[in-house]
Structure formats: C-alpha cells, structure tokens
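Before anything else, study the sequence and fold tokens given here and see whether the fold suits the sequence. Record follows:
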Amino acid sequence: MPDPVVACVDLLVGEDLNPLQGKSVEDECSWYVASCTFPDSSSATLQKHEFFVDMTCEGCSNAVTRVLHKLGGVQFDIDLPNKKVCIDSEHNVDTLLETLKKTGKNASYLGEKSVQ
C-alpha cells in the first residue's frame, strides 16, 4: 500500500494549488488522504498455477513449503501423493519454477489451474 503522506505530497506537487490557497500542508494532506483510496492488495487477481514436484516424503513437502515462504507473496497447496503443488501468486511462472527447483527436486510446470 502506498504511503499516504508520499501520495499526498505527490498530489500537491502535481497540482497548482496557488500556495495551498491559504491552507496548511496538513489541512490539504488530510483532505487528500481522506479522499484517496488505495487498491487493496488482497483483492489483486492471483494467478493459479499447478506444478509437478518429485516429492517422495514429508521432508520434500517441507522443503517446498520453506522455499515458497521465503519467496513470499504466494498461497499454495501441496498434494504429496500426486506430487503436485498448486500456487496462487502474482509471480511469473519462471520465478515460481526456479523457486521450486531450489528444493533440489525435479520440478515442471503443468499449467494454469482453473478457479472453481
């Protein structure tokens, strides 16, 4: 989320306010901050991707969990019996695949997962 003060300064600088028309910066900024809405990052559209990861045990799935948590910005489900990892993320496929390969396991991209 953008810093409201920085956004306010950007808005003030971008407009000709004729030296704030007798208002203080705080008055003008509070108006801008109150009237501005910032996009909620939780409502951003996450892409769902499915990967094969050659996991054979819980240690393997723990390694997947570790690297994905370190990457951040992901939600994921691990299907150990079927050796699949479904990831919801704004990261691109290459970044996700390289991250999964950091486990030392064979990993490949299976495709986009449809939202149900």
